[in-house]
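Entry for the shared binder. Reason: the reviewer on the internal report wants the predicted structure included alongside the sequence.
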Amino acid sequence: CLLASGRTPNYLVNKYAYAPGQSNLGGPSARLLIRAALLELLGIVLSEATHHETSGPDEPIPVRLAMEFIAIHYSKPDISLADMASAAHLSPDHFGRVFRKSAGITPMRHLFSVRIGQACLILSRSNLRIREVSTMVGFEDQFHFSRVFRQIVGESPRAYREKNR
C-alpha cells in the first residue's frame, strides 16, 4: 500500500498499522477507524465509477476497445494514436475517422479528457504536488498538463484543488 509518489501512507506506520501476526485489532476505536477507512475507500471507488466515461452500446466495437485501452493505460505518457489503433485492430487513419465519427472528438482529445478527469479526482482527494499529479496521469511536462487542464476544466489545477477541497 504505497502511494504512487513512493511515500508510505500514515496508516501504515502508526499504531493502527496492519500486522499479520497480531490477532487483536486494538479494541473498538481501532475497528471504528478501520471501518471509516473502508467507507472512505468505497466512496472514492463509487465516485470514480460515476465520473468514469463509459462507451454506449451503440458505439462500434473498435471505439469501445480503444476507450477501454485508454481507461487502462491513460497514465502511460507515451500512448500514441498508433497504440490506440492497434488496440482497436484498425489502421491509425481509419481508426481516427471511426473514433471521431462515433465519439465526436479525436482519440487524443479523449485521452486528455480521461487524464484530466483522473487528475481532478486526485487533486480533490490528496495533497500531492501538481507536478506529481501530472506525472501520475501521464503528462511528462507539468506546464503542458496545466495548459490542457485549463482548456478542459476552465481553471488552473491549483484553483480547482482549492475550490474542490
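Summary line for the report: Confidence is low (pLDDT under 50) at residues 1-5.
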